[in-house]
Amino acid sequence: MGLYGLIVSVIILGDMDKNNYQFFKAYSHLGAGLCCGLSSLAAGLAIGIVGDAGSLGFSRHQSELAARKTLHWHDAYFDFR
Questions:
Q1: Which DSSP string do the residues of 8-75 spell out, in sequence order?
Q2: Whole-model pTM over 0.90
Q3: Do residues 25 and 15 make contact, with C-beta atoms less than 8 angstroms apart?
Q4: For residue 50, what pLDDT is reported?
Q5: Among candidates 13, 2, 5, 3, which has minimal Cα distance to 36?
Q6: How many whole angstroms separate alpha carbon 16 and alpha carbon 2?
Q7: C-alpha to C-alpha distances, 4 to 25, 35, 37, 68, 80, nearest whole angstrom
Q8: How far apart are CA 25 and CA 32, in angstroms?
Q9: Are 43 and 1 in contact (CB under 8 A)?
Q10: pLDDT along the chain (81 residues), means of 10
Q11: Are 12 and 33 in contact (CB under 8 A)?
Q12: What is the pLDDT of residue 44?
């Protein structure tokens, strides 16, 4: 997600002009940076929540999932022999 912020900052930096930088451009650049940053923050939080729920679910049903994976591996191994 940090790569998107870097891309947006390079695009904004290429659009800046030292001699003629108006308020409209400044606020549009601020909005672009905030949009990119806040969406990255929301995505990071969502990934963290989903990862936490997934790891807790896996730890609760670890023996059941291990049995399913073993059966799946067994079927896949003997299908291709």
A1: HHHHHHHH--SS---HHHHHHHHHHHHHHHHHHHHHHHHHHHHHHHHHHHHHHTHHHHHHHHHHHHHH
A2: no
A3: yes
A4: 83
A5: 5
A6: 21
A7: 20, 11, 9, 38, 43
A8: 10
A9: yes
A10: 85 88 91 92 87 70 62 55 51
A11: yes
A12: 86
The amino acid occupying position 46 is A
CA atoms of 22 and 20, how far apart (whole Å): 6
CA 8 to CA 29: how far, in whole Å? 9
Cα 39 to Cα 1, 5, 49, 50, 79: the distances in Å are 9, 10, 15, 16, 45
Contact between residue 36 and residue 5 where contact means Cβ atoms under 8 Å apart: yes
